[in-house]
Design goal:
Elements (H helix, E strand, L loop, with lengths): L5 H8 L3 H16 L4 E2 L11 H12 L15 H15 L8 E4 L1 H13 L5 E5 L6 H6 L4 E5 L9 H7 L4 E6 L12 H15 L7 E5 L22 E6 L12 E5 L6 H13 L7 H10 L6 H17 L12 E5 L6 H10 L2 E2 L1 E2 L8 E5 L4 H19 L1
Parallel strand pairs: 1-10, 3-4, 3-5, 5-6, 6-7
Antiparallel strand pairs: 2-8, 7-8, 9-12, 11-12
Helix pairs in contact: 3-10, 4-10, 5-9, 11-13, 12-13
Bound molecules: pyridoxal-5'-phosphate.
Length: 394
Amino acid sequence: SKIISGTCLKNLAGSSMIRKMFEEGIELRKVHGNEVLDFTLGNPTLEPPHQFTEALAEIAAHPPANLHYYMPNSGHVSCRAAIAAALTQWHGVNLTADQLCMTVGAAGALVTLFKTLCEPGDEVITLAPCFAEYASYMSHFGCVQKVCYPTATLDPDMGCLERIITDRTRCIVLNSPNNPTGHIYPVEVLKAMADLLTKKNQGRERPILILCDEPYRRLVYQGFTCPSIMPLYPYTIIASSFSKDLSLPGERIGFIAVHPHIYSPTVMAGIATSLRQLGYVNAPSLMQFAVERAVQSSIDMSWYQERRDLIYQAVVAAGLDCVEPSGAFYVFFKVPKGCTDAEMVAILKRRLVLSVPGTGFKAPGFVRMAFCVPLDDIRRLAPRLKEAADEARA
Ligand code: PLP
């Protein structure tokens, strides 16, 4: 191309496998219509809670005077205060408006943090299986991605983590409930990680930070809870959004919250300056006012629970090895021995079922299915998944 840069062309070639599968699905649907079952994209199609729509109506009826103006880059104080109060309950650590900065989704929060925290050559540890986009978010700032591999229970392997920490380790991205696995790291794992990092921090000039990427924090299934590392490790920063718990992915509203132990006006000014310099300037104003009023509400978890129960049953009935999803809206199963994840995805595709290979999440040998789909699609998946698993084992 004579127009876009060589770097951008390279990025295009390596760009998200999930999107590619999603687009292939559109093509497949042109031929096979509704026979195609698409489990590729984690797109919450559920309506936001009524508190959110009521908040929008209230704002439209009585607009705040500064609704459409530029604002301090970190966002409206009233919004940050409401979210800080909610986070204080959820994490068990006292947070205030000063420690928050509103962002353009969790993605915008992560990019802003990498810009604020990292020097070129700094290493960022991601815990596999992990969200594929981290690599591109950190690449803008010359960060080097290091991967910590999981145990059989899909928790980070502490031995591996210890081995890959170096003098250049700047941060670890912790994502629980996890995309792509739906797994929540138990408190023992968080404690072990906090202990390891506390030990490693001794004598270091710059502590190793934990970035909690947690847009799924409140998507937790019956019988499970989602522990926080914030009370266990003071060098923690949250990057999150309302894309999933209020079902607002298209509205691009999220936040950064800095642990009180490492908070300072300079840290927050650094974050706000990065936000501006990246061209985000500030998070959308209308959305800030709306989530301020709706932050304590949440989407109807029974909608996801029903889907999770059904798809997990289908995976188990197909004889596939899978850690039960405890949160988020994904199942992540092991492909049968002798078959690769790409082959399993192809076998499923021949049955008009679209899924994503684990390789894109640094977890070859697994397949991810996102279940934000109509219940009937999951019912229709069950026999096809069983046939596909039998073929893969043959
Ligand atoms: N982090 C993880 C693990 C995700 O799964 C996603 C979106 O799917 C994001 C971050 C980005 O979230 P947002 O849409 O709020 O930017």
